[in-house]
Write a structure and sequence with these properties.
Layout: E1 3-4, E2 12-16, E3 19-24, E4 27-32, H1 43-62, H2 68-73, H3 80-88, E5 115-121, E6 128-134, E7 147-154, E8 157-160, E9 172-176, E10 184-192, E11 203-208
Helix pairs in contact: 1-3
Length: about 210
């Protein structure tokens, strides 16, 4: 039922039959209700919707206050989450599963990766790995203070290793993966600058724990 306040010229809101009335910014608007509503349900649309949901969940859970500014900076017309979805949605299939781990990007930007990145298990250790690289700071926008970041996917768990302090200049660091023996872990290495305003692309490597 429509409600009229302050006389016929006052704000209105409500509906009568197929007519909807509302007020916005001091003005009254009247329009008819849509005769029908089309909910897109073709097979392709349903699959895309499922991939969209899975990608949204990953971005919302994986990116924190350190990484969000990097994604936000790359396209001012999109939110950081919209940008993440645009880059990563094709890595998912219609069952909400990751179909291509190597396609995932947890960082984007023009900051170059170091040269000669390598990941290998430390002999005799309990799931400890050594990461090494060659310092290429000073060639362009690379800086010795650029910080190494590592994202891991283990089963359904996605986590950013927050205890890392290694920089581009260090050229080496060790990480520990608290995962069960025989597990598959997907690692994503990237660098961000000291101001946390610039990021690099990912270096991806899958690891099979012994």
């Amino acid at each position: 039922m429509a409600r009229i306040k302050l006389g016929i010229l006052g704000p209105i809101n409500g509906s009568v039959g197929n007519i909807v009335a509302r007020s916005w910014n001091g003005k009254n608007y009247v329009q008819s209700k849509p005769s029908h509503y089309n909910d897109a349900k073709t097979e392709t649309q349903v699959k895309n919707r499922t991939r969209f949901i899975a990608c949204t969940r990953l971005g919302a859970s994986a990116l924190d206050e350190t990484l969000i500014p990097i994604w936000r900076k790359n396209d001012h017309d999109l939110t950081w989450l919209q940008m993440f979805i645009r880059i990563n949605i094709n890595a998912f299939d219609e069952t909400c599963k990751i179909a291509s781990y190597e396609m995932l990007q947890f960082s984007i930007g023009d900051l170059p990766l170091p040269d000669d990145i390598s990941i290998h298990e430390i002999t005799g250790s309990n799931n400890e790995f050594q990461i090494s690289w060659t310092d290429n700071s000073g060639f362009d926008i690379e800086a010795s203070t650029d910080r190494l970041m590592v994202m891991s996917i283990y089963g359904e768990e996605v986590s950013l290793l927050n205890d890392l302090t290694a920089t581009r200049a260090d050229q080496i660091t060790n990480i520990s993966l608290p995962c069960e023996s025989g597990s598959v872990v997907h690692l994503y290495l990237f660098f961000i600058n000291k101001a946390k305003s610039r990021g690099s692309a990912n270096y991806y490597q899958m690891i099979q724990l012994p």
